[in-house]
Design goal:
It comes from Jiella flava. With about 160 residues, this protein is of the alpha+beta class. The chain has 4 helices and 7 strands. The chain is globular.
Length: about 160
């Protein structure tokens, strides 16, 4: 089954540095357990997942250190911006991810939060390995070469 690309307007938060700092091994889509004010805040587009990560605790997957700012119109019913948020995945997916983190020393990095076609907030989660400095330099060289190649093809 082919995956559809999300429209840019549906993306609520994106972790652009993740692909630079980590080598992405596998990705999966997870649901988010959010309160009403968190959904309203996400639709505003001010959320940040740059420093966030996911971890497995007591048989559940949690998103740690994500920042969803308070929704200004909510008054006293607002949420805590830095609270832990539960991620909704199937048990088999959770076991696979937890095993890879334990065995191989990988990290669970959120790539983006977006709203799907039905308007439900989803998180694209990546199973990743950290890159060291030479790998990052290689990524920069490859990106620059691809840009230069595109320019040369466009000119001819």
């Amino acid at each position: 089954m082919a995956k559809k690309k999300q429209a840019a307007s549906n993306i609520a938060a994106e972790n652009r540095k993740a692909r630079y700092n980590y080598e992405i091994v596998d990705t999966l889509e997870a649901g988010l357990a959010l309160t009403g004010t968190e959904v309203k805040s996400l639709r505003g587009g001010k959320a940040s997942i740059a420093e966030a990560y996911a971890t497995e605790e007591e048989g559940e997957l949690w998103l740690i250190n994500s920042n969803l700012p308070e929704y200004l119109q909510a008054n006293r019913f607002n949420h805590n911006p830095k609270r832990r948020r539960k991620l909704l995945v199937h048990r088999t997916q959770l076991n696979k991810l937890a095993g890879a983190v334990q065995r191989d020393g990988m990290t669970l990095v959120p790539l983006k939060i977006y709203f799907n076609d039905r308007g439900v907030a989803k998180l694209e989660l990546a199973l990743a390995k950290g890159k060291n400095a030479p790998d990052k330099r290689e990524t920069i060289k490859e990106r620059d070469w691809n840009r230069q190649k595109q320019r040369l093809l466009k000119e001819s």
